[in-house]
Amino acid sequence: MNKPNRMILYWDSFNEPDEREPLMRFRLTYEGELVSTQDDDRPTDLREDRRRKQKHALRKWFHPQLQHLWATHPMLRAKNRLNADGENYIDRTAKEYAGWGYNYVPVLKKGTPVICHIETLFLRRQMPGGLIRGGDLDNRMKTLYDSLRMPSSPAEMKDIPLPSENEKPFLILLEEDNLITHTAIETDILLDLPKDESDAEMNRVRLIMTVTISPYGGTLESVDWV
After folding, report:
1. Which member of 42, 48, 71, 199 has the greatest number of CB atoms within 10 A?
2. What span, in angstroms and rounded, lies between the C-alpha atoms of 101 and 217?
């Protein structure tokens, strides 16, 4: 049974990981504004514009964390070694996933025998469980999960600036969000005092996402799952 401040959002019981140890487990963090458009009384197109820009801001936040992951995790470092042609995995993948002025490199690609679980500790300025009981969960978490995947259409990148030099290529967690087979969230109070009474301060959250990548079926050879 779920606790009042904890909820299983999605569980694909068909796609369970096998009994081997996870291939990778790491944490992505975010601190800043995470807005909801649920109670926004602006026109629909303006609400969607706000959500689209929020998703890209989240992607930009996670990009340097994933850069550090690729640079330090032994499995990803091995995967990114130069091949016989003198080209590494990141450069090859960036050419494959080019679009809307960006070259994306997902950690997890579709068609590989791995699945992804994400558990999120969601700290915000409400009582524990208020987010879940308040009905705003889907709205804010959908924005968060969308930011972990590559954009899926030109509309998502409308009016989005081109990448900076440090964002070439642009690192992302997932090629598609259907690679996530389990998500859960736990809410608690963010105890930091707000700096002021602005909407941005009251909407500020601190997120700690535990990402677990596990094998699923088949036989994994070395690190060729990436």
Report:
1. 48
2. 36
Model confidence pLDDT, tens digit, residues 36-78: 655 555 566 666 788 889 999 999 999 999 999 999 999 899 8
Q: Which amino acid, residue 70?
A: W
Alpha-helical segments (H) within 105-190: 130-133, 137-147
Hunting for tokens 């987010």 — which residue is that?
A: 131
User: Between the CA of residue 136 and those of 27, 34, 122, 198, what are the distances in Å?
Assistant: 24, 11, 13, 20
Q: Would residue 220 count as lying in a domain?
A: no
Say how far apart CA 63 and CA 55 lie, in whole Å: 12
Report the chain's mean pLDDT, rounded to a whole number.
Answer: 82
Would residue 223 count as lying in a domain? no
Q: What's the pTM value of the predicted model, to 2 decimals? A: 0.84
> pLDDT tens digit string along 140-160?
888 899 999 999 888 899 889
* Residue 178: domain span: 6-215
Nearest to 7 by CA among 145, 180, 186: 186
Evaluate whether residue 208 is within a structural domain: yes
| Tally of domains within the chain | 1
Contact of 28 with 209, CB cutoff 8 Å: yes
> Dihedrals φ, ψ of 141, to 5°?
-70, -30
Determine, yes or no, domain membership for 72.
Answer: yes
Q: What is the pLDDT of residue 21?
A: 72
Give CA–CA dist 206/68, Å, rounded. 20
Higher pLDDT among residues 84 and 129, named by residue: 84
* Structure token pair of residue 166: 């440090």
